Amino acid sequence: MKNLVIIGGGFAGFWSAMSAVRQARFLRKDSSLKITMISLDEYLSIRPRFYENKFKDMRVPLKKYLDPLGVVLDVAKVIRIDHKKKNIFTLGSNSQEEVLSFDGLILAAGSQLSRPSIPGFEHAFNVDTFGDAVLLANHLKELSDFRFPSAASRTFVVVGASFTGLEVITGLPERLRSFDLPDIQFNFILTDRSFSIAPEYSSEAREIISWQLEKEGIQFFAGEEVDSISPDHILFKSGKCIETRTIIWCGGLKANPLTSMFPIDRDCQGRLKVDQFLRIDGQKTIFAAGDVAQACVDDEGHTSVMSCQHAIPQGKFAGNNAVNALFDCNLIPYSQPRYVTCLDLGSEQALLTSGWGRFPKMTGISAKKLKTEIMSKWIIPEKDVEETVKISVPVILHNEG
Ligand SMILES: Cc1cc2nc3c(=O)[nH]c(=O)nc-3n(C[C@H](O)[C@H](O)[C@H](O)COP(=O)(O)OP(=O)(O)OC[C@H]3O[C@@H](n4cnc5c(N)ncnc54)[C@H](O)[C@@H]3O)c2cc1C
């Protein structure tokens, strides 16, 4: 019996498990393979929806899929990996350290919010985990219960003017409108140490984003580095101070620290460089997928981005290849030349871009409908378990031209 362990029950880990089950069946090795998933909780968290206020369907129960497929779910925290001896050390709910040995491993432990050592950082909200999203929602509800009594409680500051920060700030006006307090005027401020909004986007796309910010009355404070945060204000190094009860930190993600267990190069986000089969460099049966992996996606030198768009297909390739590696079959090279982004811009507005230059392809209501469909259908597993296994085949997504 071979042991395949998957660390992480996010998009990459979930699809690794589905694909490993499918490929083991295909090779008629399902009775010779035990698959174990270790994850911090029992859910596939739909992280891209954590800026919304609809908590229903933001988490998919993993056991619904894993139990009928015979995949063991171990709810525990991996604290160490000994890749030479092929052992994983975990801490379970009883705080007892346990050791699990493996023949094959897929590291899919995702990413976490980058937390700079800024005085008072703990007073900032964020949308990194389900718990963080609930904290923010409860805070907004509490302010609304008191009818946003002070200027500071009516002022909302989002730090970070890239993808997540933009989705958070442009979603806030509609979120606050849902409290049905039409007489109250709110202030929305987006800040960044960079001088540009969404510098990773094309200038055409940035124009659309800026237009939407203006339409929603959102101010942009550029080139502002945060000095300190307190429960009722944010201070910038320039000396500027904003009185606010709500600071939402969207300053970027970094790869899970478990990546440091491997003595190889990591990129500036802490991701492990993987080969064309998603193997961690130098390892025959150890793979990485999703936000922990930096993978080449095409022949032009582009590498994967921390996104579901890359985590889901990488999971499918990693699961397939891990099983093939364990049973001495050929591995399939991963590539994913197609690259799109769909940025939510709040009320009836979104922006679809195509290609690595992130040029606008669609805006307005049709883009918003597409965004809603992506969030509520495309990235959510099929309801039927066997159907989910069926669509876990690795497929290369090409550009549409
Ligand atoms: C607010 C927000 C908005 C986003 N919007 C988009 C978007 O619009 N489009 C898009 O494509 N992407 C978006 N993303 C990014 C996307 O959510 C991630 O790229 C994606 O979740 C990565 O999947 P993953 O499986 O690699 O990691 P994750 O989803 O982070 O899953 C990691 C898993 O590992 C487990 N884990 C972590 N540490 C341990 C440990 N020590 N031991 C055991 N288990 C562990 C966790 O419990 C979790 O199950 C967004 C992210 C955020 C936070």
From TrEMBL:
Domain FAD/NAD(P)-binding as annotated: residue spans: 3-315
UniProt keyword annotation of Metal-binding present: no
Name of one Pfam family that matches: Pyr_redox_2
Keyword line: FAD, Flavoprotein, NAD, Oxidoreductase
Entry's Gene Ontology molecular function annotations: NADH dehydrogenase activity
UniProt keyword annotation of Flavoprotein present: yes
Family: Belongs to the NADH dehydrogenase family.
Protein name: FAD-dependent pyridine nucleotide-disulphide oxidoreductase
Gene source species: Leptospirillum ferrodiazotrophum
